[in-house]
Amino acid sequence: METSMYKDKPARPWKTIASLAALALWLGGGRLVANVSPAAAQQGAISDYVGSEACATCHATSMDTWKHTAMGKAFLEHPKTDTEKLGCEACHGPGRAHVEGGGDINAIIRFGKTSPQSAEQQNEQCLQCHEKGNRMFWQGSTHESRGLACVTCHQVMKPNIPSTRFDEPLTGNHQFVKQTTMEVCFQCHPMRRAQVQRSAHMPFREGKVTCTDCHNPHGTPNPSLLVKATINETCYQCHAERRGPFLNEHPPVMENCMNCHEAHGASRPQLLKASMPRLCQQCHDVSGHNATPQLATTRFAINRGCTNCHSQIHGTNNPSGEFFTR
Amino acid sequence: MSRQLLQRFILFAIVPVLLLASRTAYAQGEADLGQIEFGVRQLYGNRSSAKFNEYRDIPQGVFIRHAEVDLNDLFKKSFFFSLQARDPRENDQTFLISLGTSRQYRLDLKWDQTPHVFTTTARSFLIENTPGVFVAPFPIKSILQANASNVPVLQSVLSSSPAVNMSLRRDKGSGTLTLTPRTDWTLKLNYSHEKMYGHRPFGTVANGLTNITELPEPIDYRTNQVNTAAEYAVKRWDIQTGYSGSFFHNNVDTLTWDVPFALAAQTATSFPSDRGRLDLYPSNNAQNFSLAGAVSIPHKTRLMASVVPGWMHQNDGFIPLTINPLLTDLAPLPATSLNGTKQTLAMNYTLTTKALPKLPLTLRYTSYDYNNNTPSLTFTQVVVAENSKSGPVTYEVPGYNRKNLAVNATWQFMKSSSVKFIYNWERLDRHERDLDQSTENTVGTSLDFNPYSWLLLRGSYKHGDRDPNVYVGLATDIPSMRKFDEAGRIRHRGEGLLQITPVDPLSFSASYGTTQDAYREKGCIWAGTTGIPLDQCYGLLKDISYTYSFDVTYDPNSKVSLFAEYTKEKYNYRQRNRQRSTTNDTPNNDWETNRRDKVDNYAAGLTVSPSPKAVIDLFYSLSVADNKLFTRALGNPGLTGYLVTSAVPYPGVSDYPDTNNRWHQMVATLKFPLKEGNLTPKLEYRYEKYDRVDFQLVNVGQYFTDSALASSLFLGVGADVPGYIAHIVSASLEYHF
Predict the structure, then answer these.
(1) Count of alpha carbons within 13 Å of A315, Cβ hemisphere only?
(2) From CA B469, how far away is CA B445, in angstroms rounded?
(3) pTM score, whole prediction
């Protein structure tokens, strides 16, 4: 019996975990007191705050909308932290200079395209509370380093409105600037919007799957902001049957589903990148029937193409499955 | 209580009670307590295609599109309860109940049904007596065998076969409990159970790989998923740990079917079988633990790390080598089951610093081990098509290890504008493939230029060079063994995005993208002599895509809003192959295929409020895909041994017919908000049209033939997905309470 070369080099995750924990303790342990967060540094003395009631004097419409949002309810009705108790000023900073300046817009932190603050400065206000959970890897992530602000995708002053174009999986309200998660992402990824309109697609349009089922836009330790370590592990969330291990593995399938499939939408059935037999002939060109051109009227091309026979192409546990036909 | 009863109970009992209670006892000021949209729908047109209801259910008659109850301050302060339902009592219904106390605990309970209709044209005379066992009725089998070359008779018999439901449904129930006992602690527990059941078209073959019989593959899966997570996060610290377990069970282990064809005569080595059997996906499980942490250290520096060890396991029993009783004296199996195990380990260490405020720097190291510890088994004999023995066969256990080291340096040359420089090194070590090791170096840059609030320009370019370091086995000497996913590759990838808002109501954006992959430029022999191409690079050689998009939105006032979008995608591929025989393996038999795929997308929408009591929404989109596939021989037919166009039985250097499809969608909605918007009658008309041309499906019915094997007959189920036209008219009432 042949032995895997990896058996000689078993992974030792626990050793790594222990090392990581020790390193983190060493790096952080003695420095907690010495650091002052940028956001905290911006907070002024208590006397600089005027309270949310003062804000409502001039911004009654905004207050009326915001107080019905999840964040508004939390801050105004059930504050749990000192930051939350600041209400509007938790995010916009101390308001006294703004009030005394007759509504001086430069004396307060503003959000959005016209803000004098940079995206990083705007984001620091949000990260006071939100730099945890699935935002742990935000710093240094693709979206952070390309200068995206939290408010590029989210708005906290208004609730969502439903979309007539795409359905959205039922979730808690993420208070997006657009009507659905997909439409938020499509602002900068318009090609994805085109791909989900294709004839072969996952149920994006129908509101059963959305971008964040596979990607975490706030940053992940994984490639392409995937929620799982690899493309395949991401696909296995819904396609666990293809996970194996199998007696006969098809190596390119095992390595990367997207060698053959285009997950965002395709013009061919099963989200295939190309029609069979050409798809298979991208690799299989050595001998026999897989190296010959094959007419479009042969069993190699019509109906299920190569999988008319090789239907177990994702892997099989059958001892007679040498050619993925069993 | 049955599920249907439970649903009715939720809809017709709980909701009204909650509404009443909340309205009278727990008034929430001016906020909506919820909303419901219900109405009546009528359908017209030819909508029998599977595409119409592919992932959805749109029945005629009374419907509830969406219902929501959102109660706050119920029972005690900060307790909330919400119930959302979409398309209740339909095949694609979803329910979500959320309750809890703000930032103390939250419980989400979700029920979701997702249908997937593959085809509505399937027919089969094979009867599924028990799950996974298909029997051909003897009278039909006799007719087929007696008329194997009489197409009209076959057509008549097979077309009267009973219809088969080729659809699946996923029913998934899940619950997530989130506890926040303190602001710095978060605990999460999630459990889900998914049932997936139905049938999908599936190809089978028996007896010399020619007796193709397409069948409905029975699907009866159960997947249980458990996720737990704990997080401790303070000002500068964050530690997360978790466990995830996924347990997949297939209730139908094997597929067994009667071979309806007349069997060929028995020979010394071939024993045709009247039954076939194959193994369906084995039950399996996968588990992993995760530990992730982040700490902010001085000089605006943050260290983040995650370690995720995982295990995959499968130990379903092996089925016998064949169902054919004529094949005797088969060698015993080396094991009764695989006991397959894979161990994965994903690690990431990221250090990002803004010590120099204008020059953020990120260093990242990631690795992913995919260690296949499954035993490599050797079977002395196998029976790949039920009729003859072959072997021995050794099943290899492929695995791989990927390491990446990335450096990103950004120069913020002005507010909201920066240039980023990227370097990524990747090493991939593989086991039991054609390449033991490859290295890829990628350099790139990106520009984010946002000098004014009305102008944003983003651009990026990456150049990657993958070097196949160590080929092994046959691939050392035979370039055609070198697969594109592991071969040398030069990659150019560029993207650009321009967003302009010249005046507040008008915005415009355009994007461009290209990915250009050239494979096998390293490690191939590129040479030639007069008249004969001698390059030895085969398989996929070029994969090039271009994409363009243009969007414009215009909101001149609060009463009018409109947008238009156009997107174009172009994909070009080139692959080269060689038709060989054992005695004739020369470059003169090379042939080449070029694929040209093009997709155009158009969309436009208009929202108009001619009066405060009327809103008109119009939306139209069209997606047009057109795929061409050209094939040509590269050799000289005048030379001896030329196979490509003359050889029997596999002739065929010819272009494939074009395939294309179009999908139109138009939606026109008229709303009449009444009573300060709480009550909105709505009229909606939806038009959908799908059409396609696909040579692979268009002539396939319950039987099909192979032009290269005229005497052969293949049984299909006729799994076509034709075009459709649908008109959906609905009148509904949306009530906010």
Answers:
(1) 28
(2) 26
(3) 0.90
